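Query structure, 144 tokens:
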């Protein structure tokens, strides 16, 4: 069953529900990375967007979006927006990214102030690229 059918706008999932549905170590790893490097907590949000409707998890730092995560069965989608300020750095790093991310970036048109990358996080290499894109978006806090 689809995520948005399991949890309608009237039925908010718990984070445990999300973990069980996604059923991927990559999910936990990204959430830990964000919490440790940005000291922010996730926010559940419901979207009526036709592209990816249903409950999602948003991370913001100082009012700036780090990413939005969409639960899928056995994987998740990470939306990372590369805006005007991040384009040059993202394009410099692009050759080091997986072919999947390179193709996604090159084929994504620029709209609404950036490139809206909807990334299917299905393996460790893609996850590492997502972390790098988030670091481009907002520099992580300095660890003491």
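Result returned for the query:
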């Amino acid at each position: 069953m689809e995520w948005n059918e399991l949890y309608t706008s009237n039925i908010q999932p718990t984070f445990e529900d999300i973990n069980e549905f996604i059923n991927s170590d990559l999910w936990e790893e990204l959430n830990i990375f964000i919490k440790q490097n940005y000291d922010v907590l996730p926010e559940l949000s419901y979207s009526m967007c036709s592209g990816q409707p249903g409950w999602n998890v948003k991370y913001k730092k100082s009012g700036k979006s780090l990413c939005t995560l969409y639960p899928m069965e056995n994987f998740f989608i990470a939306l990372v927006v590369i805006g005007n300020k991040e384009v040059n750095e993202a394009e410099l790093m692009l050759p080091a990214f997986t072919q999947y991310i390179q193709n996604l970036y090159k084929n994504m048109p620029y709209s609404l102030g950036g490139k809206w990358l909807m990334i299917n996080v299905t393996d460790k290499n893609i996850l590492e690229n997502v972390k790098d894109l988030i670091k481009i978006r907002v520099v992580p806090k300095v660890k003491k």
